[in-house]
Amino acid sequence: MNRPADFHTHSLFSSDSDAKPEENIKAAINLGLSSICFTEHNDFDFPPEDNKDVLFQLDFDNYISSIASIKELYSEQIPVYIGVEQGLCRSAADRINDYDKNHILDFIIGSSHLVYGNDPYYPKFWEGRNIDEVIYAYYESILDNLDTCNNFDIYGHIDYIIRYIPDKSYEYNYKNFSDIIDEVLKKIIYNGKGIEINTAGLRYGLNATNPSAEIVLRYRELGGEIITIGSDAHYSRDIGSGFDIAYDMLKSCNFKYYNIFRKRKPEFIQL
């Protein structure tokens, strides 16, 4: 039996990756993955850095034509899907909701990379702030995104912000934020969307996926059914990373299926 599909990967079409798409596909084939989906970054209104005026904005037409050609080349070896990881924010809601209006993509991940327009990746963001208050504000921003943006299929790495907490002595406890996380999960389910198990946290020294097992279990308890698995690989070597852990997590959280998407429609694959 093939290993699960990797439905969150990046290549040189994302501004933070130099990976060659062909190398990602070859890595997936060598691992015996059942399929792979490219989900390149597109973040409207992302704050510029290093004097760049445009950051994380995808050259959509070039991306589509390039991956379509590569997809055909490997069609007899592995299914290749074409997606986008769309950064969600109220200020760009109209552009987000109108994205891919010709229905070319297979899949869109909606992600929160910012806290009300500010990037928690940088230690400076955290200076002089209470960590719990920042984390709570991040979840509030997700609720705001869910109220304004609807053109996506699953919400990516829901507890993403914990990757970048600079105080390594801080112990993140899901229970301290369970009320607002429940609101997030309920709204995702109500809106007919899903979540992902993003294994990148295991590579960031968190010893946990994003979201953590507690959140995945709670999503299932609340009636959530749509769930994908993604490595969030920005290097070919990370394709399929941590999938054994994700697969076991799905089973322990009472999932009998995981999902892939084709033409924006979920397909349920039995575990």
UniProtKB/TrEMBL annotation:
EC number: 3.1.3.15
Keyword field contains Transferase: no
Record's catalysed reaction(s): L-histidinol phosphate + H2O = L-histidinol + phosphate
Highest rank taxon of the organism: Bacteria
Leading EC class: hydrolase
SMART domains associated with the record: POLIIIAc (SM00481)
Keywords from the UniProt entry: Amino-acid biosynthesis, Histidine biosynthesis, Hydrolase
Sequence ranges assigned to domain Polymerase/histidinol phosphatase N-terminal in this UniProt record: 5-90
Pfam families the record matches: PHP
Pathway assigned to this chain's UniProt record: Amino-acid biosynthesis; L-histidine biosynthesis; L-histidine from 5-phospho-alpha-D-ribose 1-diphosphate: step 8/9
InterPro entries: Histidinol_P_phosphatase_HisJ (IPR010140), PHP_dom (IPR004013), Pol/His_phosphatase_N (IPR003141), Pol/histidinol_Pase-like (IPR016195)
Similarity comment: family membership: Belongs to the PHP hydrolase family. HisK subfamily.
Name the record gives this protein: Histidinol-phosphatase
Naturally occurring in which organism (per UniProt): Lachnospira intestinalis
